[in-house]
Amino acid sequence: MSQKDIYVKNMPLGEAKEKYHSALKKINFFDSAATTEIAVEEALGQITGAPVFAVHSSPAYNAAAMDGIAVHFADLASASDAAPVRLTEKQFVPVNTGNNLPLEFDAVVMIEDVHYVNEHEVELAIPATPWQHVRTIGEDIVATELILPVGHRIRPIDQGAMLATGVTRVLIKEAPQITIIPTGSELIQPGTTPAPGQIIEFNSIILAGYLNEWGAVAKGAAPVCDDKEKLRATISKAVKTNDIVIINAGASAGTRDYTSTVLAELGEVIVHGVAIKPGKPVILAIVENTPVIGLPGYPVSAILTMRLFIHEMIYSFMDMQKPVTAKTQARMSRPMHSSMGQDEYVRITLGQVGEELMATPAGKGAGAVMSLVRADGILTLAAGSEGVGAGEKVEIELLRPLTEVQSTLVAIGSHDNIIDVLANLLHKGSKAIRVSSAHVGSMGGIMAIKRGEAHFAGSHLLDEKTGEYNISFIKRFLTDIPLQLINLCYRRQGLIIAKGNPHKISGFQDVADKKLRFINRQNGAGTRLLTDKMLKDQNINPSDISGYDHEEYTHMSVAASIANGSMDCGMGILAAANALNLDFVPIAEERYDLIIPQKFLDDTKIQTLLNIICNSPEFKELVNNLGGYNLRDSGKIMYRQ
Amino acid sequence: MSQKDIYVKNMPLGEAKEKYHSALKKINFFDSAATTEIAVEEALGQITGAPVFAVHSSPAYNAAAMDGIAVHFADLASASDAAPVRLTEKQFVPVNTGNNLPLEFDAVVMIEDVHYVNEHEVELAIPATPWQHVRTIGEDIVATELILPVGHRIRPIDQGAMLATGVTRVLIKEAPQITIIPTGSELIQPGTTPAPGQIIEFNSIILAGYLNEWGAVAKGAAPVCDDKEKLRATISKAVKTNDIVIINAGASAGTRDYTSTVLAELGEVIVHGVAIKPGKPVILAIVENTPVIGLPGYPVSAILTMRLFIHEMIYSFMDMQKPVTAKTQARMSRPMHSSMGQDEYVRITLGQVGEELMATPAGKGAGAVMSLVRADGILTLAAGSEGVGAGEKVEIELLRPLTEVQSTLVAIGSHDNIIDVLANLLHKGSKAIRVSSAHVGSMGGIMAIKRGEAHFAGSHLLDEKTGEYNISFIKRFLTDIPLQLINLCYRRQGLIIAKGNPHKISGFQDVADKKLRFINRQNGAGTRLLTDKMLKDQNINPSDISGYDHEEYTHMSVAASIANGSMDCGMGILAAANALNLDFVPIAEERYDLIIPQKFLDDTKIQTLLNIICNSPEFKELVNNLGGYNLRDSGKIMYRQ
What we know:
36 strands; homodimer; 26% helix; extended; 27% strand; disordered N terminus
């Protein structure tokens, strides 16, 4: 095995887009959409392929606009309360709204103003104006006038306007056909449990979903394993029946990545490697007059590069302008350095904390699908920019409606499964309060409150000296911030261990003596403080604990490592052990509180949260089902400043 | 025939909504959505019926985050440029991005930093940190953690997150089934040419379209003719298989309107008549525990009342919050009086003219489908408010994206078919400039320019004294406004007459002598000035022209009345006669100019317009095909001030 030739350029984004756009223009890609005629009833959401003109006028005749009688306005010229005019048969005719106005009449008197003398005669006390209460022919639209221009997305009202004016069939543009070809021998189908090294193939579902939302007809093909000839055959076939072909993965410089070689052999690689992060190894190629795009394998990279390169292509293909993505101004809660020489796309969590919309960077891993599920927006740090400072105003491209962001409670701090329980109860029904929670440990939560990033922080920081929870930390780090410390629960902490306790662990001494693989929590986590206190109390040197340096950020990820067999034990809560069917050696009961700044206590979202904690029987039942919790002080104010 | 009992109340909107909401709560309507389990791949756009939790962690194993080699970080502790560390077989293993990290290793060194000494040995010059370039198990999400709350609309990224964590089936809420029953013997199917008194049934398509966009599964039923028993049978059947039933038309107090009677017999009418305009006769009823809503027959009334009463019902049924409609601030270009005692919903055309977004009321007729096609937004004039003054800031509910509004050229003034030609050429392709045109005659256009409502106005006002077009009117009415008057075309004006000229018309004298039915244009229209000048020149008294008082607003509506046989002749342009296959008696050639305020001349939209007029061969060809035009001065500046 030898180091392979790494040939991925770092072309500026603008240049890459321009180069590919010119290449696509040369093959007439933007003029290649076919048109087809369909029934107007079926045309909702389709794009007009030609202007649409009215076939007949609307109304097509002079129509009564009210229920009443049709009259000749001149007959009523002298009508008054004192001297009402009497009309006899042939001088009027009863009409309902929408009825054709007979040619001899030129006005309608509404029923409320008509006095029937007998069945054949009426008396009227008010004069009429010509054409009153009449919808005259062509009042709305006249035959041959323009209803819809070309390149217009057909709305329900447009369907109505076409049908109303005699248009029953409409020429529409055919959406671009796109095939997504997943590549990689490690891919397995959804529904299978992945063995180590295997990856569930879900990228094609995500990519197709977005492409279809953008108006394409996209579908995933069967995955192709790492075989150059198979890839070549699949691409050759796909370009014959598709408007765009997407190869997912195989775009980086790994040893198995044949995509760029195959594309260069089959056609022309216009761009390989763009100065963007994530998404650098993207390939923009053309094979047999069909655009073929190699997207990176990581889902987040694939989605972001697809947004950059393919979103606009689809709209241009359909002869439409790409809709402008909603943006908002927000204030950065912490500084971000720019990536040297690359445009960087940063996932952002937004929180309306008071008057300010605060932006906090979220999840960096390109493989982290959940980071995009959780993200509210994207911040672009331009190549060559100096980054942004804490407190600086930035523009964020929104991934969900601003109103949804504004109805979100931002929880940053220690994680507890009860936060998920609360998230569900808050989202249910008309309340529709979303909880965005970041698990950064208790100390991280206190810092988030200090920076104004969060509405509340979960915390269980034990002060070794006083034996008290949270208060001394608040006094030290949140000195000038008025707030309340409200208890959420007491919970059992202990060692999470494999089912059946194969290593016969009864406490930390066993972990040291038996040289077991321990997994620790990060600095600043309440559980870390508890661990350190236990080790100190028992005179165990941390360096005797194997894995003391391997830090995880949540109880659940500690439990997952143990369930998976890669670690033997770690400190965590009973709920986490229960959730993954693991065993548990109790060490202590600890207090878990919520830190809530005073200024948010009147916020209806926080009020709703506290109301659930204090009063909801459903909440109590769900928590008790988790196990290991005690709600004796739940909702109680433990401290205020 | 006797005047029927008119029993439609005028209940305030808030009260009506509250009353109906309580009634719906009593029948548990909002808890009646069924749930069903479907494959995650099919779940795009569906609403979660229960919270979704991760089945396994992601990553499910410790995975290499880079291409390179897996190592034990401790082995590299002393590595430096001066003293690189050599690793032999078993101390490392090559890994590609995504590969499982064997349990004995705890770090990855990226390929760029690896120096292969031979196939089995590598040299490394940099120490490693624990777990560098490794995606540790559960880093993204851990088994049992919450992925999606209940009542969440599933996005492509959510599908990916579910599949990535072993969730392959998801519980979703079943969308409400809605049937729309059109009523009325006058209804005919689309595709038939309506005889006088007949109406094409297109409301059910429009209503179903919006309901489906809001997440329901709605379809139109076959129309029911005006027969009480048939209506009763249809409703009785529909409530058994639908979550909501809509009766369209039959809600007002016309002689054929049985809906409320039938509903009162079958169930309970909760509300009949709400203080809104349009939409007053709406019926809110419950039959056999199913909501049945009678919407007014006019399409605009039906759509607006559906937005008021049914939009939110669908979201509540799905346990979701109704998305907030986009709104914008705009400045009224003219005063609007409020409707006494009724909330009034006014269709609005918006125009970004300079810095200001100007709002102009558009189309009042409740039957005018095109008015809603053209409208950009809705202004609500609350019952009891004093209306709004010209120049006042108002809030407009948007019917199309603000960016689309901002890329719209607002044309108000005299209508000419060339404006439609320009609209199409401007909308095509990447330009995507929309033209919103209101046909109010030349003088109306001048007033719109004065009020700042329009980017340009088409005008052909003949000054009797000077024989010159437009300039004297501009000097008089637009005194202080810097502008350019740019010629669009010369065009033939004349009498539009029926095919074959059955009345042997050679000019106005025939119209007077033969007492033919003439249709006039409105005051302020250029064609009206021309008509008046011709009558004066020929010494014909307007009162001798039958129909001189019947005014229409466009050439095409004049032509339509003649094509329809309700009128014998009217003044208009050759293009209008040609479009409807009518004959034409030429009277004069007139000049048609565009008035463009100086401040808009640098606007790219206006620049694009002028570029098409001056340089586009396609434009010239399309205009020449219309007939009756001469483009000899097209694009020439006729006057500036």
